[in-house]
Amino acid sequence: MSRTSIFSRLLSASIAIMIASSASAQMDKTCAFFENETVELVIPFSAGGGFDVYGRMVAKYMGPQLGAASMIVRNQPGAGGLLATNQTWTEKPDGLKLQLIAVSGMLAAELGDAPGVRFKTNEFSWVGRVSGEPDVVATNPGGTIKTVDDAQKLGAERAVRIGSTGLGSPQYISAKLLETVIETNANVITGFSGSPEVYASLGRGELDLFSSSLSAADAAEKAQTGQTIWLLGTEAVAGRPEIRPISEMVDAKFLPLIKAHASAVAAGRAIAAPPGLSEDRLKCLRDVFDRTISSPEFLAESRQLNRPVEPLSGAAVADLVRGASEAQKEYLDLLRSSFAQ
Amino acid sequence: MTNAPMATKPQKRAELGDWIFTLALLGVMIAAYVMTFNWPASTAFFPELLSIAGILFLLMKLASLAWTTFGGRAALGGASASKAAHSNGEVALAAEGDEDQGNEDEFHKVFARADRRTWAEVMGWVVMFFGGMYLVGLLVILPVFIIAYLRVVAKAPWRVCIIYVIGTAGVMYAVFELFLHLPLPEGILFSGE
Amino acid sequence: MFDAAMTGLLDVLSPHSMGLMLIGILIGFVVGVLPGIGGPVAMALMLPFTFGMEPIHVFAFLLGMKVVTSTTGDITAVLFGIPGEATSAATVLDGHPMARKGQAGRALGAVLMSSLVGAIIGAVVLALSIPIIRPIVLAFGPPEFFMLTVVGLIFMASLSRGQMLKGMIMGCAGLLIALIGIDPQAGVPRYVFGQLELWEGLGLVPIVIGLFGGPEIVQLMLSKESIAGKAVSRNIDGVWQGMLDTFRHWKVVAWAGAIGSAIGVIPGVGGSVSQFIAYGQAKQMSKTPEEFGKGSIEGLLAAGGNNNAKDGGSLVPMIAIGLPGSVSTAILLNAFLISGLNPGPEMLTTHLDVTFSMVWIMIIANIIVVILALPLLKPLARLTFTEGPILVPFLLVLTVLGAYAENNSMFDVWVMLGAAAVGIVCLRFNWPRVPLLLGAVLGDLCERYLFLSTSLYGWSWIQRPLVILLGMIIVAILFKTVWDVRKSIRRSSEVRA
Q: Which residues of A are less than 8 Å from B39 in CB distance?
């Protein structure tokens, strides 16, 4: 790791930006529009969190690649991201205002008819996905549940306790899905403030199962408050064969449901512009995004900060979102039951 | 203001204020209670509990207000001292409330003594600042407000005004807009580009 | 373990770490004057600058900043009556009255010194608890969290300044305010009136700034006098006296520090509840409880001693199991992950030196802050003798930025304004504000953990040993409160007779 001081870091960063911006200025004719403009990337959550770090990483490298004068990050937290997303939906589609969107959460809110949704996820101008990690299921460290059969055995004795944050949160949706597919006497316990608190409870042995993102589960495994057992999807993660897809263990009739959920979750954290962005600007943004996110500097920083990226092109994200928007009835019912109507 | 005896007038006024405040809060609590009707049981449990408790306390307060306003003040001394905990509190209020010295009380006096005109002036300045911020944004209203307020109220020399503006609005512009790229409250008139 | 402690100390003392700590402290000083923006916002904004640094450097930088922002928060609390955070509002209760009596210097000296002592207590508790850190943290579950919020809530009575009924009413109102937003169990929006901004509840920062800052500004505008306008003595040289006060009342500071660090350890509720418990406890122990809230040096020392101690304590659950207890520890947790560290057993074995370095940073940064702040205290204290109208625009900007900066939201500015109106009405008609704040801080925690306890354990959680212990404490405090009230009634009726 580098031992540079904060001053030299700032200095080198600004030099790098200067060099990069002069280099990229003559690169793209389609991107001439962005030259010397200020692009704003809205983050729908508070500064200092995990989501924020991704946004700042992208902005730092994408701004110079675009040739923009600057790409600034603006945090606009509120209503679990709905507030910012509602506003981005109505912004002028000139490409100068972008947002990092927690796609699955917004998609679920829209399809589940959650109150407060004023957008159609499908119609945003998708620029590209930064990261997308699957949902996994964890049990308490040293717990006895290894397979769905174990869970069912436990369910025969007493209700299996599945932890979750409040209704309508992403964790609640996956908890509901889990409750559905393990087909046993189970109980979703809501009211935790966030994944760390659920994991603390799991670590105390108060809960039996919890479904969270893979990275949260990894952190909990290192903190010995949880033990990852299943993947809440159909295909194992590359390099993690020990986490078995739950689809192998449950009744085949649930496969479409699990698939629908997994693909909605796969849309991950993606950048979007307001709907109706002109073709050429969207193309420019997509090209620049793809270039940024595959650039060695960006990847080096993502590795250094332990923030793995899973890039996906804007067109592919749009396909994923469209596919999920046409989800079948069972999944829609699950979503609707996950929001207070 | 008439030259009525100082001792009774503020006392009456304070009582009137207590009446208004208590009744207003009672209205809020009742509204809060009524709103729980449409919620599922677990959602409604806490708000119901609290609003009912609030309403009960407020009714007690009303009773004690009625007692002090219409009943004999002198009789309060030790009459109900040995009753339940809440009436203890109420006696403590009657016993200590008036003689309270200290910070909050000092504020109370400043607020109570200011006449309507002074209040209107202050509210005018507050409305100017916040209304201006709503319309044209913080960075525009701030210099205007500083200069106006310092010239009119503090009677400060121009030199101080200018240093003041640079020291606040200028520093904020440099730090928020130029260095950290943080948003500042924008006015609705200038938002957009 | 001793080796790790020494390695940690040497790492912190390296020129590089010390340099970064100083930079962090300086930035914190400048940004920290803004109430609310203080700790969490400054840390969040500076987090990107730590990308790629070594863990110890990251913590030297960020923890140094956190330490100084809590001290600057105390300074604005004493001078202008505006607390830096909702979780350290108790400093205002006695610090500001002292400033108004013309004792700003003494108050600043006292709060600075007691914070330092508190911080050292907190750091020592953190260090001592390392071997038993995980079992301790895991011993507390939702039932214990719930009982602890109740302990905090019963201090409502003793914080009501002898107006118990009014205090209970304001407390209920505060608790109701805390329930605004999406309910954590069923996801039903409560009291939101269709406003998405209210879904996550009213922000505590705008509430606390408005409630305390609003009346202060309007008071200055109305009276046009300086903050210490009515003061008889004009003694700004009291800094040393204030520092000595810390040691003269060492028991108060030690208790407050112990309460802060012990309760700060408890994840979820510790940080929020500890100031009320420390302050209430000091009041109950004091020989002159009637002075509390009117410029009692004991009250100020209790608040100061508690503040930085609880920050030390709150690091414990974050290090032990990765559970942050506050906004700023959540940011620190993120800094952990970014710098490649994993909270949990690793921090107590392979990375024990990093854990110890955090202990050292807490101590050293606090000492540096005291040394740096000392020469500033006199000029700062002089501000309380500045003409009121000169301060007004500056204070207005502070409150607006403080309310706005956390979420970049204009809505929060209006919330602040509303809270200011409530604060003014409360003072005008002699209704206590503190129970309102207490309710607003603890309300949602109280509800959430009660429901979690019952959905996890049914009603059997009442039989848990720690719950029974806390229940006994509650009964004892209630008994003492009733006893004190009866005594004061007897005394006042004797005086009248």
A: none
